[in-house]
Design goal:
alpha/beta; Rossmann fold; Beta-Lactamase; six-stranded mixed sheet; elongated; binds guanosine-5'-triphosphate; binds magnesium ion
């Protein structure tokens, strides 16, 4: 039960450069306003927001980072926060462009739009709503939850209201969702898998061949230390499958799912497995160590999935 409460909901914070994304992330972590620097790449933070544990991907807003990272992280998030600098009218066309790209990449995740910098001279709220074509959102998907708030990250105005709504909308998001798990691998940095399960009966027929080189290449990057601290994950899509890799504290968890599985849910499962491993290793390390080697009980993770995710994770 303790593990369930430690599920981290992946949330992408997007918005053009200088919008106030990092200011938001810092405020959620510390409860205060602090001066920030532009984000080079992305920052990953875990924060408790009104009782919901969020894994925040604070993505760099410069054009270069938008093209490099946004799609990947928006696709695998279970909630999207789009921050707009409402005092900068010149960039609004670009804002609309990228907002709708994000909405196309992820058509289901709850969306929180924050019209930031309300403490400065800014565009009228109604004009902004019209400009970003918010009325069109229910046409794209009538089931997506979305709201827009006028806020000031600097003063903290309206953030309480915005996050009461958002944490409530995102906290029960995986209820009822299912993923089809085809493979599960846990690697240590030495490159040795401490758990490996392939659930398809005839791997050569059922798994795309083109997926294997990409997968091996990612494992290779992990073991040779190329995967830096901020590149906690990689995902690969092939015609029929999706591989999601999450790295934490020197352990890599790779899950292979059927293509129609929601990557956001897959990510929550991968994160929970890693949390479970961390807790178990800390508490029961002596159980795993024999003759100075780590021996991993064969069905250790499968039993965990059966216990905690029997309704979410479907194994062939
Ligand atoms: N006046 C005012 N300034 C703000 C507010 N929120 C953020 N800022 C300022 O706007 C600037 C940019 O904020 P950041 O949070 O670093 O912006 P960002 O969206 O993370 O930018 P990138 O990392 O480059 O994508 C900083 O100088 C902040 O102090 C606000 O509500 N009001
Ligand atoms: Mg930033």
């Amino acid at each position: 039960m303790q593990i369930l409460s430690e599920r981290r909901i992946p949330i992408a914070i997007v918005g053009l450069e200088n919008a106030g994304k990092t200011t938001l992330s810092v405020r959620l972590q510390t409860g205060r306003y602090h001066q920030t620097l532009p984000t080079a790449g992305l920052d990953v933070e875990v924060v408790d927001v009104k009782g919901t544990l969020f894994q925040l991907f604070d993505l760099g807003g410069h054009q270069h980072f938008r093209e490099l990272f946004w799609r990947n992280y928006v696709q695998l998030s279970q909630g999207i926060i789009f921050v707009i600098d409402s005092s900068d009218c010149e960039k609004l066309d670009e804002v609309v462009d990228w907002l709708w790209k994000c909405l196309e990449w992820n058509k289901n995740a709850p969306l929180l739009i924050l019209a930031n910098k309300s403490d400065l001279k800014h565009i009228e709220f109604e004009d902004l709503i019209r400009k970003i074509r918010l009325a069109k959102l229910p046409i794209q998907n009538p089931h997506r939850s979305f709201r827009i708030f006028e806020v000031s990250m600097k003063l903290g105005t309206n953030l309480d209201e915005a996050f009461s709504w958002f944490s409530q909308k995102t906290s029960n998001i995986i209820d009822g969702s299912q993923i089809k798990l085809l493979g599960l691998y846990i690697y240590l940095p030495t490159g040795i898998p401490i758990a490996s399960h392939l659930f398809t009966k005839e791997p050569s027929q059922n798994l795309d061949v083109d997926m294997i080189p990409g997968f091996l290449n990612a494992i290779d990057q992990f073991t040779s230390g190329f995967m830096g601290p901020n590149e906690g994950l990689q995902s690969l899509n092939t015609q029929n499958h999706c591989i999601l890799m999450v790295k934490r504290e020197g352990v890599l968890c790779a899950l292979i799912t059927a293509k129609d599985s929601d990557p956001g849910v897959t990510r929550v499962v991968a994160e929970s497995i890693l949390t479970y491993l961390e807790t178990s290793f800390a508490e029961k390390l002596s159980l795993f160590r024999k003759d100075g080697k780590i021996r991993f009980p064969k069905n250790f993770i499968l039993d965990f999935l059966e216990r905690e995710f029997s309704k979410t994770v479907i194994i062939n």
